């Protein structure tokens, strides 16, 4: 292979789809030891789960890095995004009461101090909202132009009773699929704001910690699997869940909650809301007999009034997602390549 043919990392590798998973598996998973984790790195779940000694429960750990442009947007900012993203990843594993978060901040030289203060204030407010204290951290300053203003890494730690964690691979035939609210809000809102579009209607990011909402759902019935549909959106999350559990998923497109503002803006922008990031929503599998009770509990929560049952798990077409459009069926594939400028 010549120098000009050297393989390089592209923005498509960070889009959250198949190319990103392949990169992680080739560069990281194949080189790191899993140890005795109940949910190891190779599972590529939202976090790892490691049993504590003497029956002390299981430790859930997750980490995430956050870059977004603009850093402040309708509905939130990079600080709220950083805390919510890590709290939500813990919640997807069933750890709804975080013990602690870390905060590693990388700042470009020349960034106004006021900007950093606003971000730190937002992180503090969001961590208090989520009940997730920030207990340690690190700060680095890069040269002007070496980084785009601010990047934040947060790591979260929680504990669940042994055997009670919720894997994203836990779906079984007959389970119902619930989406906890309107989808596409974060991605469509940020893109329209960044590009200077002024759409009518309430168009803003949904970024928020969902751990209390998830706890409410788990108290109401048997939740078998969860994902927060961030990069790659609902389409990617559903495909990952179907593939990992080796089951089929059938989705009723007309049941998927999408706000009028997002639908209209997505049509103008030529973007499918099912493919873009959400930062305050959950897609969960629920045991069939408990689905109505879980849905009612979610809808009674302030964050879940638009929740809906959108489909079910079937034995046919394992690893695939079928979308019933109302006019026929088609495969719902996850987006490939670079779909959008980075929004989370």
Description:
By secondary structure, the chain is of the alpha+beta class. It folds into two domains: 46-160, 60s Ribosomal Protein L30, Chain: A (2-Layer Sandwich); 176-331, Alpha-Beta Complex (Phosphoribosyl-aminoimidazole Synthetase, Chain A, domain 2). It is built from eight helices and 14 strands. The chain has helices at residues 18-27, 78-92, 113-130, 185-194, 211-220, 233-245, 260-269, 291-299; strands spanning 48-51, 58-66, 72-73, 76-77, 100-108, 134-142, 150-160, 176-179, 223-227, 248-252, 283-286, 308-314, 321-324, 329-331. The strands form three sheets. The protein has a seven-stranded mixed beta sheet. A five-stranded mixed beta sheet has the order 1-2-7-5-6, covered by helices on one side. Strands 3-4 form a two-stranded antiparallel ribbon. Strand 1 (48-51) and strand 2 (58-66) form a beta hairpin. The two termini are 35 Å apart. 46% of the residues are buried.
Nearest-integer average pLDDT:
92
Q: Structural class, judged by helices and strands?
A: alpha+beta
Helix-strand pattern: HEEEEHEHEEEHHEHEHEHEEE
Please work out how many helical segments DSSP would assign: 8
Distance between the termini: 35 Å
CATH class of the largest domain: Alpha Beta
Number of domains: 2
Q: Roughly what fraction of the amino acids lie in strands?
A: 15-25%
CATH architectural label of the largest domain: Alpha-Beta Complex
Strand element count: 14
Detail the poorly predicted runs: none
Helix content: 25-40%
* The CATH topology of the largest domain: Phosphoribosyl-aminoimidazole Synthetase, Chain A, domain 2
User: Largest sheet, described in full?
Assistant: 7 strands, mixed
Pfam family, one: AIRS_C
Family: Belongs to the HypE family.
GO biological process, one term: protein maturation
Protein name: Hydrogenase maturation factor
